[in-house]
Fold:
Amino acid sequence: MELIRGLHNLREAGPCVATIGNFDGVHRGHQAILDQLKSRATALGLPMTVVVFEPQPREYFAGEQAPPRLSRLRDKVELLAEYGAERIVCLPFNAALRGLTADEFIERVLIRGLGVKHLVVGDDFRFGCDRAGDFALLQRVGERRGFEVEHTRTFALDDERVSSTRVRTMLASGNFAQAARLLGRPYQLSGRVVADRQLGRTIGVPTANLPLASRSLALRGIYACVTRLPDGRELPGAANIGWRPTVGSTRPVLEVHLFDFEGDLYGQRLTVVPCARLRGEINFAGLEALTRQIHADLAQARRYFRTATPLDATALELPCASTGWTYPLASAPLAPEPSTSDSSAGARPADQDDG
Structure:
């Protein structure tokens, strides 16, 4: 897989079959698009190319008010490659790109940059300054300049389109089983362990701390989770995702405690699979109250792993390619949310963040 960053690096890209979008989470709707793209790429004997933007357009315009990401760029690239992308083009979404007219976008990005011969996009795809370009314009220019344009096929489960918004809603409601069904795999977060305050060690609960991007979070609260180590081991535990209001934090963090584990994880890349929501974040009166609650959370997480039913791809009616994992994914929070907690659930955003 080849990763190309920036419009200036596209000169040597050569002809391709391409699609353009956010691909946030690379869910089963996105996977259907990638399958469609792969078929055309194979038929034409051209590389399968996916164009994404960084930041995502809604993040550029809305900032912290944009919907929380399901996947960071690194994870997105890995997932796109896993589902067949041979070339991933990451374009910086900035004032220069935003300022391109629709015709300039077609000429500079699609024709001179990508050398596109076949383009797969949604029939509601808009592009160029003030979103003036549309699917019809692409078809007209394509007929004249020698490339074909094909619209994406809708992928639905339970008579509803699979979208990043729908995945976020399932995560916020604590339905990790349904989120996995929409994604085609369990939802997970990954990162490299960094040194932090080491407060957990002082109360008998050491944690591995993974910094998160300083934008809104798809999850926020305390979760029973399974953590995958670089050596392939998967260990149960509990994680806090958020801002740690009692001790104060200048950035969001994922801190995970692994049950019955001893060892040094600094600098290692971990993957955390949230399985069940225990509660939201609470601003406790002090460290003593926080410590009592943490130990109660750990006991609840241990009980959950002793009694929960593991689910796999077959149980969730997922494609065979998604086999190879088994996790006890809950379909609802384990307890009602207290009024003092910070919940990740909020008003459902408009379903306009895919593409």
